[in-house]
Design goal:
CATH class of the largest domain: Alpha Beta
CATH topology of the largest domain: Rossmann fold
Structural class: alpha/beta
Number of helices: 11
Oligomer: single chain
Helix content: 40-55%
Radius of gyration: 22 Å
Number of strands: 11
Bound molecules: 6-O-phosphono-beta-D-fructofuranose
CATH architecture of the largest domain: 3-Layer(aba) Sandwich
Order of helices and strands: EHEHEHEHEHEHEHEHEHEEHH
Largest sheet: 7 strands, mixed
Length: 325
């Protein structure tokens, strides 16, 4: 009797990230080329519980690689957080004949996938989040596009801030991680970068530095504030009150997740999709696809989730040396 055809389920979950479509496309096309069936699960784990399943063909993922968002849609699932969520999800996947679930998303998506694996369904995780906050990997799908989008916006805010000779506080996303702020701050020549990993919440020191720069003739300042540091509006008010200089906050918000993915995100997402399929071909299950030292590879999913990493010393150093003068 011929071997049973392997069926893959693929979903995107959590916050969307530019390049997710390239990863889905690679899983679908390369999976089909290897002889697998691929079922799209719509709206992440939320849609999984609602059994929003549809078989995908290579043709279904045409004309998607250049678009932001995710053609499979995404959601944050409350059901998955229930004590019986993972077991119910595994049961549904088994009922649909799914042998392996490929879950594309961030930390929460990986944790959900691991919980499902522990209930007896094989899984592979592909890291996709604009936040670059997953310790297991040097790269996450969407980060490169998001920082380009944010830097473009910050450059525009600087033009306006220069015209008005004001202080601009720009809040970028990233949850508890300062990677977006750090990269954007360095790339846009920000005067200050506040990130949760290092900021001491010492307004006085910050305000003193602004005053020193003013005394040297500097008329406008860009302060990049990471979401994890928080309340940019209140910070703007405190700075304005203390310095007498007009200060305005701009929260970049969801625009950072949208737009056409960069070429780098499209290519790396394709490589990561291929790596996920290679794991399945080789029978390596419950793996996380990661990038380490410039190479796409895979590692044990549980180990990936339990990895820890500190913020890059090189980036912290260059940001400090550049912005304080
Ligand atoms: O993880 C991506 C991200 O955009 C974070 O930077 C942000 O904190 C969060 O998602 C916002 O989530 P939601 O889409 O639930 O508002």
């Amino acid at each position: 009797m011929a071997d049973k055809q392997i069926t893959i389920g693929v979903l995107t979950s959590g916050g969307d990230a530019p390049g997710m479509n390239a990863a889905v496309r690679a899983v679908v096309r390369i999976g089909i080329n290897k002889g697998f069936r691929v079922i799209g699960i719509y709206r992440g784990y939320h849609g999984l519980f609602k059994e929003e399943f549809r078989e995908l063909t290579a043709f279904d993922v045409r004309d998607t690689v250049q678009h932001g968002g995710t053609v499979l849609y995404t959601a944050r699932s409350k059901s998955m957080m229930q004590p019986d969520g993972p077991a119910r999800a595994a049961e549904i996947l088994k009922n649909h004949g799914i042998d392996v679930l490929v879950a594309i998303g961030g930390d929460g998506t990986f944790r959900g996938a691991l919980a499902i694996a522990k209930c007896g369904v094989n899984v592979i995780g592909i890291p996709a989040t604009i936040d670059l906050d997953m310790a297991c990997t040097d790269y996450t799908i969407g980060f490169d596009s998001a920082i380009d989008t944010a830097v473009d916006a910050i450059d525009k805010i600087r033009d306006s801030g220069t015209a008005h000779e004001r202080i601009s506080i720009v809040e970028v996303m990233g949850r508890k991680c300062g990677s977006i702020a750090l990269w954007c701050g360095i790339a846009s020549g920000a005067e200050e970068i506040l990130i949760p990993e290092t900021y001491d919440y010492n307004d006085k020191a910050l305000i003193d530095r602004i005053k020193e720069r003013e005394a040297l003739g500097k008329k406008q300042h860009i302060i990049i504030n990471a979401e994890g540091v928080g309340d940019s509006e209140a910070l703007a008010r405190r700075i304005e009150n203390a310095t007498g200089i007009e200060a305005r906050a701009t929260i970049l918000g969801y625009m950072q997740r949208g737009g056409s993915p960069s070429a780098l995100d499209r290519v790396k997402a394709s490589l990561m999709g291929e790596q996920a399929i290679e794991c399945i071909v080789a029978g390596r299950m419950n793996r996380a696809v990661v990038e380490k030292n410039g190479r796409i590879k895979d590692m044990d999913l549980e180990e990936a989730i339990n990895s820890t990493k500190e913020q890059s010393r090189d980036l912290l150093s260059v940001s400090k040396n550049l912005v304080r003068h």
